[in-house]
Amino acid sequence: MFRKSTHSFKKKWGKLVVTYRKRVSAVDFFRLTDEKIRKAYEDGEFENLPGYGKPLELEDLSHVPPEMRMAYKMMKNAGMMEEQQVRTEIEYLEELIEGEHSDVEEVRLTARLNEKQLRLRQIIQKKKKEANSAVFKDYQSQVMKKFE
C-alpha cells in the first residue's frame, strides 16, 4: 500500500511540485482502520444496524466437503441451491410413489409432488424474468461491446 505525499520547492522560475509515494506498512493500515472503527462505535454508528445485539446466525457447512464449500456458497448466493433442492425432493417423491401400494398414501404423495413441481416452475420463471430484465440486457450489450 502506498500513501501519496506532495512537497513543494521554490526555484527562480516558479513553484516545482515533486510527488513521491511512501510505502505504508500493514501495521499502519490496521492501526488506522482500528481507529476508524473505534470512532464509529463511540459515535453510535453501529447501534441501528439490523440484528444489533443478537447472535450471528452462522451457517453449518459441516455436511459440505471442505473443497466444495466455496462453490456451495456461490451457488447458494446465486439462488441455485433452492432449485437443486426442489429437484432432489421431486425425484425422491417420484421414487416413493413408484414403490407405494396404498391408494391413500399415493394420493397424498402425488399432491406433494404437484406442489414441488409447481414450486420448481416458479423458481425457473423467476430466473427467466431476472435474465430478461432491462438491466441484464443493458449489461449484456456492454459486455458484447467489449469483445467487439
Description of the molecule:
This protein is 60% helix and 14% strand. It has a two-stranded antiparallel sheet with strand order 1-2. It is an alpha+beta fold. Mean pLDDT is 79; it is low at 1-6 and 8-12. The two termini are 35 Å apart. Helix 3 (80-99) runs antiparallel to helix 4. The protein is built from five helices and two strands.
Order of helices and strands: EEHHHHH
Shape: extended
Number of H/I helices? 5
- From the alpha-carbon coordinates, what is the Rg to the nearest angstrom? 29 Å
Which strand-content bin applies to the residues? 5-15%
Structural class: alpha+beta
Biggest sheet, spatial arrangement of strands: 1-2
Terminal CA distance: 35 Å
Largest sheet: 2 strands, antiparallel
Helix content: 55-70%
Count every beta strand, where a strand is a DSSP E run of 2 or more residues.
2
Unreliable parts: 1-6, 8-12
The mean pLDDT is 79
Characteristics of this structure?
alpha+beta; 60% helix; single chain; 14% strand; 148 residues; extended; disordered N terminus; two-stranded antiparallel sheet
Short description:
Helix content is 60%, strand content 14%.
Question: How are the elements arranged and paired?
Answer:
Elements: E1 2-11, E2 14-23, H1 26-42, H2 69-77, H3 80-99, H4 103-131, H5 134-147
Antiparallel strand pairs: 1-2
Helix pairs in contact: 3-4
